[in-house]
Amino acid sequence: MAEPPALLRAHAIAAGYDRHRVINAVDLGVRSGEWLGLLGANGSGKSTLLRALTGQIPLLEGCINIAGIDLARAPEQAKHHFGAAVDGADLPQSLTPRQYLEMVASIRGCHAYAWPCGDLIAALSLTSWMRTRIADCSLGTRMKVALAGALLGGPKLLILDESLNGLDPVANWRIRHILADLVHNRGYGVLLSSHSTETIALACTGALFLDDGRIAHRWSATDLAQGPRQFEASVMRVLGETIQ
Questions:
Q1: pLDDT tens digit sequence for 186-243
Q2: Residues 6 or more apart from 113 whose CB is under 8 A from it?
Q3: How many CA within 13 A on the CB side of residue 42?
Q4: Which residues are CB-contacts of 88 (< 8 A; sequence separation ≥ 6)?
Q5: What secondary structure does DSSP assign to 32-86, as a single string?
Q6: How many CB atoms lie within 10 A of CB 219?
Q7: First to last CA, the chain
Q8: Is the Cβ–Cβ distance between 36 and 207 less than 8 Å?
Q9: What is the pLDDT of the chain when averaged over all its residues?
Q10: pTM for the whole thing?
Q11: To which H or E segment does residue 217 belong?
């Protein structure tokens, strides 16, 4: 049986700022039907890695392919194949959620409500916030808007930087189940950075731990299937090894 297609493949990548390497020699991939969790202490390089994977900062070494397209050589074509949920603080503060989603839709060439999972505005209880300036929205509401933007147009690869943080329990449950349905039943792929070992154990099909800009440990679907408590203990052991 053939392997599912690779939605994301990063090979030996290094990236940073002003020639200072923050991540180095990182290899990772996300295939159709996979949900990869990314863990690491603050300052380990997670956000820098995701910025590199989404083309926000250039690579110092290595290569990134999105759906088989070289991100450096054809960035616009590659970016058509993924949706990234930006940090809520990076959303355009003067716009309303409605205006932001209309802007994203115009860039992607789709309708402003073209989600692959039904009415996401209703599912995330955003209706009453659609005409409020993003600057006046709560952290959780901004994260919902960022997630709605990432899913617009139905890109098969979703890259989420701590995007479930700040969500209320109901919204967190709903978005996890929406993403799980897209991954397991419709061939989507997700890369999620998170500090929640429980979320990664419950949702992901694999995980990796980033330490000082390098991958220090990987977990398989079998490892995660042991449950949140066992996974948390494993992460703590890895943390202890990296601190030593």
A1: 999 999 999 999 999 999 999 999 999 999 999 999 999 999 999 999 999 998 876 5
A2: 101, 119, 121
A3: 0
A4: 139, 142, 143, 145, 146, 166
A5: TT-EEEEEE-TTSSHHHHHHHHTTSS-EEEEEEEETTEETTTSHHHHHTTEEEE-
A6: 23
A7: 43
A8: yes
A9: 94
A10: 0.94
A11: strand 214-219
All residues at 6 or more sequence positions from 143 whose CB lies less than 8 Å from its CB, including other chains: 85, 88, 163, 164, 165, 166, 167
Q: Which of 207, 184, 201, 108 is nearest to 151 (CA)?
A: 108
Strand order in the sheet with 214-219: 82-85, 157-161, 189-193, 35-40, 206-211, 214-219
Sign of CA dihedral 59, 64, 70, 75: negative
Per-residue pLDDT for 39 more than 90?
Answer: yes
> What is the dihedral sign for C-alpha 64, 222, 4, 163?
negative
Q: Residue 78: phi, psi to the nearest 5?
A: -65, -40
| Tokens 């070992």 -> residue | 197
Q: In this structure, how many other beta carbons lie within 10 angstroms of the beta carbon of residue 203?
A: 22
Q: Which pairs from 119-123 meet CB under 8 Å and 24+ separation? A: 120/147, 120/148, 120/151, 120/178, 121/148, 123/174, 123/175, 123/178
Closest among 70, 99, 91 to 8, alpha carbons compared:
70
| Spans of all domains in the chain | 94-155
